[in-house]
Amino acid sequence: MGLPVPDGTFFKRGSVPSSAGMMYPLIAKVSSEHIISKSEVLGIKTGITNEEELNQAVAGLMQIPGADGVLVEETAPHGVEVIIGGIIDPQFGPVMMFGLGGVNVEVFKDVAFGLAPLDEKDALWLIAQIKGHILLEGYRGSPPADTGALIGILIAISRLMTAGRIREIDLNPVAVYPAGAMILDVKMSLI
Description:
Blueprint: E1 8-12, E2 26-31, E3 44-48, H1 51-62, E4 69-74, E5 80-89, E6 93-100, H2 104-108, E7 111-115, H3 120-128, H4 133-136, H5 147-162, E8 166-176, E9 181-183, E10 186-190
Antiparallel strand pairs: 1-4, 2-3, 2-4, 5-6, 5-8, 6-7, 8-9, 8-10
């Protein structure tokens, strides 16, 4: 089961970063099981355009308390940002969450929930439940987003949630484009 993510490389503490095979501009993100929000610890560096900036960004992120390493990725194009989540609820079992992503999830709290696993019909229903679904349909001249790609990710994550290995997962943001979608950040807790 392949899920779309930007091309990137993980650098452990003490390793020497290199952009080999990646296209600038790059983005660097601190990685740690102890850090819940990268933004809150200033754990993201964007707009990296050369090796010197890459080395400085990685060295700076490694200084964040609890950092295990740094993930360096190619910068993804802008798209409609959504959030996809899953949790094992003690009463209902695997539950999926979908809504507007990025900071929009905190500002607008426009989310919907459904039981996993999802099929295509369930995924479409979940998408239609949020007020922001209009952004995916094409708004004020913007092209419609690739809901087929989005549905594929929703179904894949719902199947992962029913496999009994993940306690909680948060894909935020997932950028949805006129053709395709890309998972830009993931947090998860294993069972």
